[in-house]
Amino acid sequence: xxxxxxxxxxxxxxxxxxxxxxxxxxxxxxxxxxxxxxxxxxxxxxxxxxxxxxxxxxxxxxxxxxxxxxxxxxxxxxxxxxxxxxxxxxxxxxxxxxxxxxxxxxxxxxxxxxxxxxxxxxxxxxxxxxxxxxxxxxxxxxxxxxxxxxxxxxxxxxxxxxxxxxxxxxxxxxxxxxxxxxxxxxxxxxxxxxxxxxxxxxxxxxxxxxxxxxxxxxxxxxxxxxxxxxxxxxxxxxxxxxxxxxxxxxxxxxxxxxxxxxxxxxxxxxxxxxxxxxxxxxxxxxxxxxxxxxxxxxxxxxxxxxxxxxxxxxxxxxxxxxxxxxxxxxxxxxxxxxxxxxxxxxxxxxxxxxxxxxxxxxxxxxxxxxxxxxxxxxxxxxxxxxxxxxxxxxxxxxxxxxxxxxxxxxxxxxxxxxxxxxxxxxxxxxxxxxxxxxxxxxxxxxxxxxxxxxxxxxxxxxxxxxxxxxxxxxxxxxxxxxxxxxxxxxxxxxxxxxxxxxxxxxxxxxxxxxxxxxxxxxxxxxxxxxxxxxxxxxxxxxxxxxxxxxxxxxxxxxxxxxxxxxxxxxxxxxxxxxxxxxxxxxxxxxxxxxxxxxxxxxxxxxxxxxxxxxxxxxxxxxxxxxxxxxxxxxxxxxxxxxxxxxxxxxxxxxxxxxxxxxxxxxxxxxxxxxxxxxxxxxxxxxxxxxxxxxxxxxxxxxxxxxxxxxxxxxxxxxxxxxxxxxxxxxxxxxxxxxxxxxxxxxxxxxxxxxxxxxxxxxxxxxxxxxxxxxxxxxxxxxxxxxxxxxxxxxxxxxxxxxxxxxxxxxxxxxxxxxxxxxxxxxxxxxxxxxxxxxxxxxxxxxxxxxxxxxxxxxxxxxxxxxxxxxxx
Amino acid sequence: xxxxxxxxxxxxxxxxxxxxxxxxxxxxxxxxxxxxxxxxxxxxxxxxxxxxxxxxxxxxxxxxxxxxxxxxxxxxxxxxxxxxxxxxxxxxxxxxxxxxxxxxxxxxxxxxxxxxxxxxxxxxxxxxxxxxxxxxxxxxxxxxxxxxxxxxxxxxxxxxxxxxxxxxxxxxxxxxxxxxxxxxxxxxxxxxxxxxxxxxxxxxxxxxxxxxxxxxxxxxxxxxxxxxxxxxxxxxxxxxxxxxxxxxxxxxxxxxxxxxxxxxxxxxxxxxxxxxxxxxxxxxxxxxxxxxxxxxxxxxxxxxxx
Lengths: 872, 306
Hints:
Number of helices of chain B: 11
Strand content of chain B: 15-25%
Largest sheet of chain A: 5 strands, mixed
Number of strands of chain B: 11
Largest sheet of chain B: 9 strands, mixed
Shape of chain B: globular
CATH class of the largest domain in chain B: Alpha Beta
CATH topology of the largest domain in chain B: TIM Barrel
Number of helices of chain A: 38
CATH superfamily of the largest domain in chain B: Aldolase class I
Oligomer: heterodimer
Distance between the termini of chain B: 37 Å
Number of domains of chain A: 4
Largest interface: A-B, 34 and 27 residues
Shape of chain A: globular
């Protein structure tokens, strides 16, 4: 199909009848048209007309005569051309030109300035999006070779770090390098979200067949199953975490206070070190420290990875050489030579060019994926990491800007093939307050827009960020309609990090991983989402004096006394605080118990190599070796709790319309009278509308939760970071919650992070932003996440200026994180009804975008229910 | 000096009612009765009860509390307005907001507090407050206090008016108003009387006056384009003729599309609705009208549509 499209593109100025094209490629006309439509989503005629008019419009903007352009694209009369043009663009060519001159067609003009995706990238993109060729390919290799590498440790007297490194080396030594035709940047991590489905091949015919299909030799298959069935003791010492108390377990079962130690898959390693020193340079550095601190398993493990890590480049270079010699016509000679030149240098040697830097970075990322298994490890500040190499190449005439753009596209396509929350970050400010936005930042936004798929791209903003850049980023949001990029505010994130003891200069370098978890690249172990608490539950425990309303036998909360003893709202709020403190303590205590076990259970030699503090002190990344070691605790239920408390304050304590006992009965019976529920929903102020009395409650709750986390840090001796973010847990958290006074029925979903409860913000975008900004965002370094629903029609050229203004004003006002969702209500409802017609519809779900069709009906309804902010 | 005025709504984050990001304050009360009005609930300054059957959960709380007894909602969900004194007790108890009060009296301080909330957005975008309605200038004393307070706070001020008001009302707000939207519907006074309920002599007179005294280019003349009423060439040409003869206070003419979706508003206000077509004009129709108006106007006046 691709050849057909390129044929059409090349011959667009000729008549191009469908039957002729079909014949040329040996299809019947009917079959051709059907295939064409299912492939492109447009009929042949539509496609050709659309393409012609697009190209024509560009030429008109370039200043060519309208009549010439019309005849060039096969329109005999200016009238016919004008009519077609009108249908396509809503105006006549002449007006189009005038509007463009007046700047109204800013987007069209910019599109002209933007580099188009090259044919190479179009093919690769198509391959990545439409074919599943490589998706699960070789995922099994990772499992099998890791196990075999592990098995090799028998009798060597290795410590845990060496055994783990030996597993990774097993993959590095044996994996099959794959080079796709047209690729400039190579390397696969072999596995995506479906990776764990292939986690353990069974010892059956199917399992063996799968392994053979994945190029695993018979000998290795036998060794793998032999080891699996009769594991040899290789000397691995694992420890079980300390047992949880009863209350801790129940709190876990009810999604009230979860706690674990997230020790893998959420971090950003120090890519700069690999680029600057190469793995050989790093090895020398490690050896120096080893001399100083003495030899140990930890250093041996790291050295093993420094050496074997070089293999990844070698093997790809060898593969390219093999392809070159085989004379395979699918591959171009220049591409292969480029790959050979690049891969025989990196990651072994320091990167010297932009291409080498990108390649080295991707290889380092892949090794960290192999070390962590399924992962959300991210790339970090790409526009900063790569800029020196870009500048060097441009200044020395090694590459052109356009070639750099192509390389970025290649990297983007690579990342798309793998797991989908590998985030990159652009922009931000330096310690001196100046903006870090550079040419690469813009090129990366362009690549994101042109490729139309990279799901995770964040942009850091500050009051010092160039307005043009903010505008450009919002344009991408508007044009892509996929919720990327999303925005973080340096002006609150940096102080929040500093308040947790992170050096100002390091805080300025923060980036985001996965969804919205904050990390100092190459310097920290963030233990993302180690704790997950649901503050809404605290209310339930007050009504039942510590017991769960969902499971009345379970006592998860603390006793705050009988209901009739609360004389006023303040006393009631004190009880809420007691319960909040208790819930958070449950979560933190569990984190502590798990953290102690993970020090031994989860060595991460490769991450240790690329994280400041580990090599220097001979301490593993997961043994608190990182310069900054902290545990993020997700705090959910804030909007619902705030709304509920506002209802209680108004109806119970101010108007005295209901007593607490009556309210308890209403909640236990799950709102028998709909009128009462509506009254609670409509007649009390709701968070998200810039109403001070309820926004202040939300502030007070969050602020108090931060206080508690500070206390817990002291009590347990590890640093806890507050992160008001719910990921997708608002569903299980909601399903474990009894009816709440804000009018939420039993089991219903709770609000996402700090976005208002869906459908309850009605006061406009500015009011919503003010509410979100009122939270103590400078105390929550884990980011206070919010998704704002905006009508896609709002993203017109003239409105984007104002949306930029709204965003910048919110940044000044203390916004922490905002993500835009830009799909209108009708589209979502239609997509729910006819999923097959909306295969490419992506929405912002949580800290990530996802295809709407892949979501559960419950999540779909949640998203449909969020208020869409439209133009007024 | 009046310190309160009936306000039907304060809407924030508006992007289309003047420059920048704006807060629009809607006043109740208007002496015109444009047949196509899409804010009919703002006709009277008096408090009014609105009823939206679609939101009603038939709980019956309103029937229990109504002093006029059994005059409110029956099973057939009709709001019987006979004997309704707009005491608003029903709206107070209505849990689902199916019943609501339109035109609550708000004090100057209350309105100002709401307006001030978005100052940050005004500052960055050059936006501010827009007074609309109804006819805001029927409460010119209140408007003046509000606008002067805003001017003191360096908030940009805009007034949206149909200009069917006494000349003094204009003079009162003039010193504190940065920009105007002035409605102009029909050039023909008889047709005007028929469709708007008043003739247009006073309106055009006021517009002429405003164009002389207002700062240069500060007035946008808005023409709502109503199918079959004023969208023919002759009518548009006469309207353009009037605008062309105005002083240089006028800087722009904006043609507005017909809004076919106002029916529900008439329904909740218990009023009869008359449709002038079932759709808004297409871009090409709007452009044709813009073309006609454009021809007759001097260069300094730009013509747009929305």
